[in-house]
């Protein structure tokens, strides 16, 4: 795994301190990193389209906007990675929950606080499984558990996500199935790959917790239902 990190802070000294701390931490964890520095929210937003950040450190007080506003815009643009806010004031701590921030660090940065936060993120990344999704020049990690099902349509794979978003990329469902090497995923139809964690009912199709329905292959309907039941007994009871 290679961690893509952005640091957005107009104060050079603060960027340098954080950059060095991150390099030391991830070197000790034997994880590769690519760290990019930004002095303004506008530059970060412009660059986001061609980058694939997993972790973004944002200073709350930027010269052109606030880090909180940048975070809101990035979430709207589809960023599903981790935010950590940097600030000299705790005043925005509650608001940080609105953008699902992973942390809120006060300046001057305390090494033990940063390491504790990075340990939590490292544990999350190590236990989580991701699919590396790309459309045009936009890259993004999507969590396996957030995929409700994937469907094939006109040489395109459509990922139906838990939050209702539909992501599309060119390709074959059979190739996606190989990458999603996870016992939670079941190929139930020529055109559908379903995440059994999101199934709430079974009849002639699968009923998903999002209200959507996924078709079962007619000739193998009984066997498919039995495979799901075996998985459910093993994982849910």
Structural notes for this entry:
By secondary structure, the protein is of the alpha/beta class. It has helices at residues 12-28, 41-48, 67-76, 111-127, 173-179, 221-236, and strands spanning 2-8, 32-38, 55-59, 82-87, 103-106, 130-135, 138-143, 147-153, 156-161, 166-170, 185-189, 192-195, 199-202, 205-208, 213-215. It has a 5-stranded parallel sheet with strand order 2-1-3-4-5, with helices on both faces. The model has no long low-confidence stretch (mean pLDDT 88).
Blueprint of the fold:
Blueprint: E1 2-8, H1 12-28, E2 32-38, H2 41-48, E3 55-59, H3 67-76, E4 82-87, E5 103-106, H4 111-127, E6 130-135, E7 138-143, E8 147-153, E9 156-161, E10 166-170, H5 173-179, E11 185-189, E12 192-195, E13 199-202, E14 205-208, E15 213-215, H6 221-236
Parallel strand pairs: 1-2, 1-3, 3-4, 4-5
Antiparallel strand pairs: 6-7, 8-9, 8-12, 9-10, 11-12, 13-14, 14-15
In a few lines, what is going on in this structure?
The protein has six helices and 15 strands.
Distance between the termini: 33 Å
3D shape: elongated
Helix content: 25-40%
The count of strands amounts to 15
Largest sheet: 5 strands, parallel
Order of helices and strands: EHEHEHEEHEEEEEHEEEEEH
Content of β-strand: 25-35%
Spans of 5+ residues with little confidence (pLDDT < 50)?
A: none
Structural class by secondary-structure content:
alpha/beta
The whole-angstrom Rg is 21 Å
Mean of all residue-level pLDDT scores: 88
Strand order of the largest sheet: 2-1-3-4-5
Number of helices: 6
| Multimeric state | single chain
């Amino acid at each position: 795994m290679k961690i893509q990190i952005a640091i957005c802070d107009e104060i050079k000294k603060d960027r340098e301190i954080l950059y060095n701390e991150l390099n030391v931490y991830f070197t000790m964890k034997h994880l590769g990193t690519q760290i990019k520095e930004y002095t303004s929210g506008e530059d970060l937003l412009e660059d986001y389209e061609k980058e694939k950040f997993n972790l973004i450190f944002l200073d709350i007080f930027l010269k052109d906007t606030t880090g909180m506003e940048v975070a809101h815009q990035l979430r709207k643009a589809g960023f599903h990675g981790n935010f950590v806010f940097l600030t000299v004031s705790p005043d925005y701590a509650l608001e940080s929950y609105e953008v699902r921030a992973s942390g809120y660090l006060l300046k001057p940065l305390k090494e033990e606080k940063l390491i504790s936060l990075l340990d939590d993120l490292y544990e999350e990344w190590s236990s989580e499984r991701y699919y590396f999704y790309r459309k045009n020049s936009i890259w993004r990690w999507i969590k396996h558990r957030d995929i409700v099902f994937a469907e094939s349509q006109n040489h395109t794979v459509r990922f139906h996500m838990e939050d209702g978003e539909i992501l599309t990329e060119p390709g074959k469902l059979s190739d996606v199935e190989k990458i999603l090497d996870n016992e939670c995923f079941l190929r139930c139809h020529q055109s559908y790959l379903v995440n059994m964690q999101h199934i709430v009912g079974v009849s002639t199709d699968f009923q998903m917790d999002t209200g959507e329905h996924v078709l079962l292959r007619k000739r193998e309907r009984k066997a498919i239902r039995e495979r799901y039941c075996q998985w459910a007994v093993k994982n849910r009871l």
